[in-house]
Design brief:
410 residues, alpha/beta, Rossmann fold, CBS-domain, 4-stranded parallel sheet, 16 helices
Length: 410
């Protein structure tokens, strides 16, 4: 909003004009909403690594989005920086805010975000942590907070593939630091004017994987459905806190993005696994469940000619809820405590009938190496147990209780 208001004030944006900007999503949304309220057209350029959700959301609020390749130099005519500048030159009455070098960006945070944090913490904040992309939210906020408390530490979160950390520590713009990365919304291969390195005390780099995993943890463990850069900010902040934070320190971490922008990436298990960010879950198998019993798992059975009363006596005596019905070493059916009790309540004389008259379908026989997730999917309200044969063809029964015990132990 401030960038647009300042542009209007300086005659750079006139009624009916077009706002053209390169964005990773967040600033674009702010500009798009401002454009709606003030009657402007919006065209955004975005790198093709940005999530489809970000593109869809911007289009949903009326913006036009031009997707550009990620893995090109900033000055390459195909980069999203260059395409935005080109469109600005070609389209009459257009304005290119250039959030990277437009100092109104940092000024907005100096005037609003900084005072808000200072007031909300009662002036007790000692550490401010934020990811650094354009530098606006980091440096504008940090400048204000440092004016109130010169001892405040501002910690910038960078990513591998970005130049910020190396430049802060050495003053050298090292192109060897630049390489493709997946994280969205922060880190750069340029030095934006809004990045005031004097306002930042230290940079911490966070990997793509660590940021993504932390975002998922924040959602599941804290109820904070945040995005990838927010996860990176928290991961870096915790790394710093473990080494430097004292008991009375107050750290504020800026979480700039929402989880809805990453449903197809960070919050998609297949995408996470494909990129090596999410380890395949290792499950116990039927073999390990049987082995853990150490031979204390005698399988109790009845024959087709056993009476229902006899079956109930065995289950009561041995403390089992279901048994296979066998004939010639083959499983031909099954009985359960609940099923037999229902039949006896309906007809007390049924106790003397043969099991074959009331038995249910046979339990499924599964492979010895079946994993817990496979076993669990086979156990239902009507199929309460499965049979597995060990290496010596000895049958064993596996129930929901076995699955739960194995999951708890692992």
């Amino acid at each position: 909003l401030k960038m647009i208001l300042d542009a209007e004030k300086n005659g750079l944006l006139k009624p009916g004009g077009t706002i053209i900007e390169g964005t990773s999503g967040n600033t674009g949304m702010g500009l798009a909403l401002t454009a709606i309220s003030r009657g402007y057209r919006c065209i955004f350029t975005m790198a093709d690594k940005q999530s489809q959700e970000k593109i869809n959301i911007l289009r949903a609020v009326g913006a036009e989005v031009v997707v550009c390749p990620t893995n090109v130099e900033p000055d390459d005519p195909r980069s999203y920086y260059s395409v935005a500048r080109k469109l600005n030159k070609e389209i009459p009455n257009s304005f290119y805010p250039n959030q990277y070098d437009n100092l109104s960006n940092a000024a907005a945070h100096y005037e609003t975000t900084g005072p808000e944090i200072w007031n909300q913490t009662g002036g007790k904040i000692t550490h401010y942590v934020a990811t650094v992309g354009t530098g606006g939210s980091m440096c504008g906020t940090a400048r204000y907070l440092k004016e109130q408390n010169p001892g405040l530490k501002a910690i910038g979160i960078d990513t591998y593939g970005s130049v910020f950390k190396k430049y802060k520590e050495t003053g050298i713009f090292d192109k060897n630091e630049i390489y493709p990365y997946l994280t969205e919304g922060f880190g750069e291969d340029i030095l934006p004017k809004n990045v005031d390195f004097e306002a930042i005390d230290q940079f911490i780099k966070v990997t793509d994987k660590d940021g993504a995993i932390m975002a998922r943890r924040l959602s599941r463990e804290e109820g904070l459905f945040v995005g990838w850069s927010s996860g990176s900010a928290v991961h870096g902040a915790l790394e710093y806190a473990r080494q430097h934070l004292q008991e009375d320190d107050v750290m504020v971490i800026l979480l700039p993005d929402h989880g809805t922008r990453y449903l197809a990436k960070v919050y998609n298990d297949l995408w996470m696994k494909d990129h090596g960010f999410l380890e395949e879950r290792t499950y116990s198998t039927a073999r390990e469940i049987i082995k853990a019993r150490n031979g204390h798992d005698k399988l109790f059975t009845v024959t087709r000619n056993s009476t229902i009363g006899q079956a109930i006596q065995i289950m009561n005596r041995e403390g089992v809820d279901q048994m296979p019905v066998v004939e010639d070493n083959e499983f031909i059916g099954s009985v359960t405590t609940a099923g037999l009790i229902d039949k006896i309540i309906a007809d007390p004389q049924v106790k003397d009938k043969a099991v074959a008259d009331v038995m249910d379908k046979p339990m499924q026989v599964v492979a010895l190496d079946s994993t817990l997730d496979v076993l669990s999917s086979m156990l239902t309200k009507t199929n309460r147990a499965v049979i597995v044969r060990d290496e010596e063809e000895v049958p064993h029964i596996i129930t929901h209780h076995d699955i739960l015990r194995a999951m708890t132990n692992s």
